[in-house]
Amino acid sequence: MKSTTKLICSIFLLIFGIPALALAGSATLHWQANTESDLAGYRIYYGTSSRSYGPYIPVDKNTTSYTINNLTEGQTYYFALTAVDTSGNESGYSQEVSKSIPESDQQPSQNEVIVLSSLPAEAGTIRIDHEWREIKFSRAYNDPIVIAGPLSYNGPNPCGVRIRNITSTGFQIRIQEWEYLDQWHKMEEVSYMVIEKGHYKLPDGSEIEAGKVTTNKVNPRGDFQKVLFTTSFKKTPVVITTVQTMNGPQMVITRERNLSTTGFELVMSEQENSDLWHVMETIGYIAWEPGEGSVDGVSYDVKSVENVNNNWSNVSYGPFSSAPILIMGIQTTNGGDTANIRFANKADRSVQIFLSEEISLDNETHHVDETVGYLSLR
Asked: Which of 91, 104, 307, 358 is an S-S bond match for 369, by CB 3.0 to 4.6 Å?
């Protein structure tokens, strides 16, 4: 690609729309192929404000059409495209196109719930917003651990999942935005898992542990909390954590580091522009040895993926018969800025994710590479 000007001229969007058979919340982009010999691929940018986009979606050089799913009903989106050459040079944006996603009368609902009687555990996918929502278990638990996240990327404001009032029969869940925002958020999709506290061995030999710890340690003010498993694992497990309580009103998420076969380290993160002090909260965790298998007729895929940052990354799993129940957590703390995972375009074989930083202290959202662990069930 010999010049940026040539790149800009050779890229433009031909068609944009929602196919007749597509559900509301999806949109398809079509564009004319770039003819430069050193074309490496394309990048799709989109957001809810004109010329204000989120992280890009990388697209193969042989692709000239792409469908974006999980768009919020009633929201207008703006799209642009760039080309990248084999040296990493990126063109300017194409002309911008926009589309309003129509409203439907669909109410937030609980999707299919997968019940694992031998653990005992269950998992499901739901839609939530900033209002508290009650989720009922399919059975009673003695000491349930509830793990949830990440959130989809319908509303661009940085946010996270909050849980409270866990009982033997259910819990409450909602989206909470960081304090510098307006605290109102679009409907998002999130998956959750409930499991009785304890250490378990599956028929294939894989091990799982669910537990909880109470801490007030906040990054970077406090040291990390050491968490030891009740029984050592043969392989370092994927560990996913969620705050189980809402004792303090401030938005808070969890971060982990130094995962091993015997335990891990844990800390909470508030927004960067805060007093970095938080009351005691209970943190729940699920540790699951990596691998693929099945339990009670349910297929699972548990693994980690490296080099996830503030740009969209493609994560492959399965394949499953349909989009799975998908729970993820950052396994490292290589970057100190407060960040969590958001996802889009979840399908039967893959999903796209990026690390979303909040901007209470500054507008910088670059995040270094982290390792992300995932638990997928179908």
From this structure: 307
Q: Do residue 271 and residue 240 come from a single domain?
A: yes
**Three-state secondary structure call for residue 47:** strand
At residue 8, the pLDDT reads 42
Q: What is the CATH number of the domain that holds 54?
A: 2.60.40.10
Better pLDDT: 237 or 50: 237
End position of a domain, from candidates 100, 134, 156: 100
Q: How far apart are CA 130 and CA 335, in angstroms?
A: 28
Average pLDDT estimate for 302-314: 96
Q: Within 13 Å, how many C-alpha atoms sit on residue 223's CB side?
A: 3
Let me know if residue 105 belongs to a domain. Answer: no
Domain ends where: 100, 122, 147? 100
Assess whether 177 and 260 both reside in one domain.
yes
Q: 225 and 123 in one domain?
A: yes
How are the residues of the chain apportioned to helix, strand and coil, as percentages rounded to the nearest 5? Answer: 0, 50, 50
Q: Which residues lie closer than 8 Å to 273 by C-beta, 6 or more apart?
A: 180, 360, 361
Q: Please state, in angstroms and rounded to a whole number, the distance separating the CA atoms of residues 73 and 377.
A: 27
DSSP-derived secondary structure for 333-360: --S-S-EEEEEE---SSEEEEEEEE--S
Split at pLDDT 50, 70, 90, the class of 72 is confident
Q: Are 96 and 114 members of one domain?
A: no
Gap between the terminal Cα atoms of the chain: 44
58, 194: one domain = no
Identify the bridge partners of residue 137 per DSSP, sorted by sequence position. none
Confidence of residue 33 (pLDDT cuts 50, 70, 90): confident
Tell me the residue range of the domain where 41 lies: 4-100
User: Could you tell me the two tokens for 285?
Assistant: 């965790």
Secondary structure (3-state) at 9: helix
